[in-house]
């Protein structure tokens, strides 16, 4: 069944209940596998069977719920629309009248018939949006913010109209200013909310700006400047010093130094020469190259990153389900509370108009907008901060789980160490071959492996100018070694001493002095051990400080490695890791992680190789460090750009702060609404004040989320 994944931009949503309604309708369709609506980003992520439905039909389904859907376009910052300026211009006379009432100047008060005319224009022209939304919401079987605003403002306008028609000379008892101000504040609040939400998408916007809008394309014997949209695969382009690379391509002439920090997290420029790849968004710090386009737009590495970030920001965290549940029942409950407030106030004899105003204030203050924004606003900001610091979370649940971890399991080689070991000694175990031949044979098998120790052996052979043999019938045992056939030699096995059948290690003093805490790789030919080499790796310079910061934050660190126990214990001692395990197979690591999880720990696994993948999959969170294999990256819940261990701390700290912010937002939104409802029911908030307070609550939640963008990860 071909499943298509597509993003749509949704228009017309006013609160989380709107997003819930769209999800409810789409997820009932047999052709839809999953549909998730993000209220904060105003996007719909849908997976569907394209043999049963189409994009146009999905748009039609969304339209039936009362909202618009178009192929996804990023939210953009907009100027205050002229309609909003007009609305506030229409409300100005009411502000003047209210000032007149406060200072006791009847000259500033406007005639009731003028109030009626202005209020009616506002109610019809600007209230229509709420009526349309309310009707669509009710038809969909749910109630949203539009229902609250429509009921409240209509009640005020209708009652004030009734009083004016029955008592034409009365200046008191009419509340046209309340209906106008409520609509004005709600519309202004939604505009400010939109403006603030777009600030959370700055990271995506910054990535977009990495690609130049114009580029030099080869035309005949020269180059002409064309728009980036005109570039296709196969076109030949030119980039000079200071230029941004427009697309992914292969260098066909020239050489340059390119800054690829947006892809690797490393600020040091990378040398580019003929035959090497250059990537979209890179900046040439020196030199000039002509390159042929291999991938454009969304197919480039940068485009893939942008798609991943947009998808991650649009996905829904598990903690957001709480807000969805509350929002689904919140509006009906609020309407019931408003009716109860109206009835109790009438029973207490406060008067019809007072009871009505208090009930309307309850309706207006209780809009669940802040509750719906609490989680996605923090997620957008947190994802953006993480991306800027070289941490790419796969989706929102991955970030959420990373914020809950209390234990981090580290692999050793390539994670805590530089992953660039060097061969320090080769010890022959046979007189059949000399040391160079033994190294040549060992490297000939290791060329089929993907591991830092294998790379070190190959580099040692190449440094001596040794030509490698080709091998056949290669068989790999993850975490142990490889076996292959070399013509004229026989079956050659390279791997751990145990893998090649060594029952004991060399005992001469020179070997013991050189290899007591080193990584060991052995070789056997036709079952007979022939050589063993010792390799030493260097601990990353930042490792000790990063592990100390994690421990200070209450995170337990564990070291699990397939390397020999002596080498693992040496690293553990230097880094003050009390829980360290060596000579672990991938199955051993998996079992150990599963044991930690079953014991109630929230575990993250940090690794870079195939042998780490099973344990990474078993952990609640997993981080693939820079240079990780494709298997490790695809398994990981977050990919860390660059090779610095600082990114592990960044990932944890950003996720933890994001989760804390979500909890703060949810608590604030609930408490704010509850207190506001009580104050409104008691008559301590007028409808106008309630409308302003409701708008303020949404802005407050968004601003709290945006505090994440000011995180100083170097000092925290």
UniProtKB/TrEMBL annotation:
It comes from the Bacteria. It is a multi-pass membrane protein. PROSITE patterns: ATPASE_E1_E2, HMA_1, HMA_2. GO terms for biological process: copper ion homeostasis. It holds the Pfam family HMA. SUPFAM superfamilies: Calcium ATPase, transduction domain A (SSF81653), Calcium ATPase, transmembrane domain M (SSF81665), HAD-like (SSF56784), HMA, heavy metal-associated domain (SSF55008). Residues 4-70 form the HMA domain. Keywords: ATP-binding, Cell membrane, Membrane, Metal-binding, Nucleotide-binding, Translocase, Transmembrane, Transmembrane helix. InterPro entries: ATPase_P-typ_cyto_dom_N, ATPase_P-typ_P_site, ATPase_P-typ_TM_dom_sf, ATPase_P-typ_transduc_dom_A_sf, ATPase_P-type_domA, HAD-like_sf, HAD_sf, Heavy-metal-associated_CS. The chain crosses the membrane at residues 84-104, 110-131, 143-164, 170-189, 326-348, 360-386, 666-682, 688-706. GO terms for molecular function: ATP binding; ATP hydrolysis activity; copper ion binding; P-type divalent copper transporter activity. Its main location: membrane. It is found in: Cell membrane; Endomembrane system. One of its GO terms (cellular component) is endomembrane system. Belongs to the cation transport ATPase (P-type) (TC 3.A.3) family. Type IB subfamily. This is Copper-translocating P-type ATPase. It comes from Moraxella pluranimalium. The lineage of its organism: Bacteria, Pseudomonadati, Pseudomonadota, Gammaproteobacteria, Moraxellales.
């Amino acid at each position: 069944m071909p499943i298509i994944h597509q993003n749509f931009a949704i228009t017309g949503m006013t609160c989380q209940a709107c997003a819930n309604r769209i999800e409810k309708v789409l997820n009932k369709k047999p052709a839809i596998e999953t549909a998730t609506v993000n209220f904060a980003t105003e996007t719909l992520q849908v997976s569907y069977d394209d043999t049963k439905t189409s994009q146009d039909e999905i748009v039609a389904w969304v339209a039936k719920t009362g909202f618009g859907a178009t192929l996804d376009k990023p939210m953009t910052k907009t100027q205050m629309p002229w309609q909003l300026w007009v609305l506030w211009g229409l409300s100005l006379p009411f502000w003047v009248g209210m000032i007149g009432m406060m200072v006791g100047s009847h000259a500033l008060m406007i005639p009731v018939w003028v109030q009626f005319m202005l209020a009616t224009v506002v109610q019809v022209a600007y209230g229509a949006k709420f009526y349309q939304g309310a009707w669509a919401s009710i038809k969909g079987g749910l109630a949203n913010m539009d229902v609250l605003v429509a009921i409240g403002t209509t009640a005020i306008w209708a009652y004030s109209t009734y009083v004016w028609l029955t008592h034409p000379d009365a200046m008191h008892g009419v509340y046209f200013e309340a209906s106008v101000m409520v609509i004005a504040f709600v519309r202004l609040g939604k505009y400010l909310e939109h403006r603030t939400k777009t600030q959370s998408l700055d990271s995506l916007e910054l990535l977009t700006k990495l690609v130049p809008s114009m580029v030099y394309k080869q035309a005949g014997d020269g180059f002409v400047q064309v728009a980036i949209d005109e570039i296709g695969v196969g076109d030949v382009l030119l980039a000079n010093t200071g230029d941004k690379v427009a697309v992914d391509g292969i260098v066909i002439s020239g050489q340059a130094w390119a800054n690829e920090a947006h892809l690797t997290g490393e600020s040091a420029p990378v040398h580019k020469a003929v035959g090497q790849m250059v990537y979209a968004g890179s900046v040439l710090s020196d030199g000039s190259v002509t390159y042929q386009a291999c991938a454009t737009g969304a197919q480039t590495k940068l485009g893939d990153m942008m798609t991943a970030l947009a998808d991650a920001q649009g996905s829904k965290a598990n903690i957001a389900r709480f807000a969805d549940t509350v929002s689904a029942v919140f509006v009906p409950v609020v309407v019931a509370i408003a009716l109860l407030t109206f009835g109790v106030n009438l029973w207490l004899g406060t008067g019809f108009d007072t009871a009505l105003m208090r009930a309307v204030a309850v309706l207006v203050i209780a809009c669940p907008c802040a509750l719906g924004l609490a989680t996605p606003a923090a997620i957008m900001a947190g994802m953006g901060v993480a991306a800027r610091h070289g941490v790419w979370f796969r989706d929102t649940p991955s970030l959420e789980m990373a914020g809950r971890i209390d234990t981090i399991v580290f692999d050793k080689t390539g994670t805590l160490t530089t992953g660039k070991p060097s061969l320090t000694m080769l010890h022959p175990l046979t007189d059949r071959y000399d040391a160079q031949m033994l190294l040549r044979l060992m490297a000939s098998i290791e060329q089929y492996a993907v591991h830092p120790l294998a790379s070190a052996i190959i580099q040692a052979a190449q440094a001596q100018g040794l030509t490698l043999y080709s091998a056949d019938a290669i068989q790999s045992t993850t975490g142990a070694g490889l076996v292959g056939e070399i013509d004229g030699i026989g079956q050659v096995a390279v791997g751990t001493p145990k893998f090649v059948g060594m029952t004991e290690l060399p005992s001469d003093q020179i070997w013991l002095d050189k290899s007591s805490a080193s990584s060991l790789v052995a070789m056997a030919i036709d079952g007979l051990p022939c050589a063993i080499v010792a390799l030493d790796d260097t601990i990353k310079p930042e490792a000790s400080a990063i592990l100390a910061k994690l421990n200070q934050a209450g995170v337990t660190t564990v070291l699990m490695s397939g390397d020999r126990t002596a080498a693992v214990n040496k690293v553990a001692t230097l880094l003050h890791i009390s829980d360290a395990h060596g000579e672990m197979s991938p199955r051993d690591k998996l079992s150990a992680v599963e044991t930690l999880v079953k014991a109630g720990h929230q575990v993250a696994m940090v690794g870079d190789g195939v042998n780490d993948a099973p344990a990474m999959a078993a952990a609640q969170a997993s981080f693939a460090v820079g240079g990780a294999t494709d298997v490790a990256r695809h398994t990981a819940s977050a990919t860390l750009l660059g090779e610095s261990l600082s990114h592990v701390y960044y990932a944890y700290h950003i996720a933890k702060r994001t989760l804390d912010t979500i909890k703060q937002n949810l608590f604030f939104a609930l408490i704010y609404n509850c207190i506001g409802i009580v104050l409104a029911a008691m008559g301590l908030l007028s409808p106008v004040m309630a409308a302003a307070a409701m708008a303020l609550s949404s802005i407050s939640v968004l601003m709290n989320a945006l505090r994440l963008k000011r995180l100083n990860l170097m000092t925290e």
